[in-house]
Fold:
Amino acid sequence: KAGVTQTPRYLIKTRGQQVTLSCSPISGHRSVSWYQQTPGQGLQFLFEYFSETQRNKGNFPGRFSGRQFSNSRSEMNVSTLELGDSALYLCASSLAGSSGGGDTEAFFGQGTRLTVV
Amino acid sequence: AQKVTQAQTEISVVEKEDVTLDCVYETRDTTYYLFWYKQPPSGELVFLIRRNSFDEQNEISGRYSWNFQKSTSSFNFTITASQVVDSAVYFCALSEDSNYQLIWGAGTKLIIKP
Structure:
């Protein structure tokens, strides 16, 4: 069974640009949650999509957005990139809509490492 | 407010030693879930265990064991007879029933020297 696939693995962007990251969950999983990991702030929850609807949202500015398609694949978009957006972005796939937590096991991808210069 | 504290930033031991990673949490919910994840250098978070707040039984899985104590709000993780392959960053996380998103500790970097 294929795991969670995140593309691209590495990305370098310039300040002010926008970026789109992709996450393909495990087959049959309908929930995709996104997390940002930085050395300073650690792991922080961005948002969760379940059956194409955003179910939960963390405390990030509106520059961070996402969507989910009917095949459960999800994309995350960051507009007007800032240096502080440099991070490892991880997505988690789960059967139920639990934002990666709750009583449901979540499976994480290897992440996309975004560097903003 | 909910919070997870992993006071040990980095631990270094020699292979075959036992090592305990500490995790202390704060929550006002009576129903919550606690997790441990391992993050090897490849970056992905590997699920190790989930415990709900009503299940205080300790758990053992091979060389891994977990000690959940509600009285001290702790959920500690012990690796017995550590191996070099155990080297990674380990995260403890909390998820409340009122909002399932994971609240993460800062992580403990574990270095096992041969």
Notes: The radius of gyration of chain B is 14 Å. Chain B has no helices and twelve strands. Chain B touches chain A through 26 residues (CB under 8 Å). Residues 86 and 112 of chain B are 7 Å apart (CA to CA).
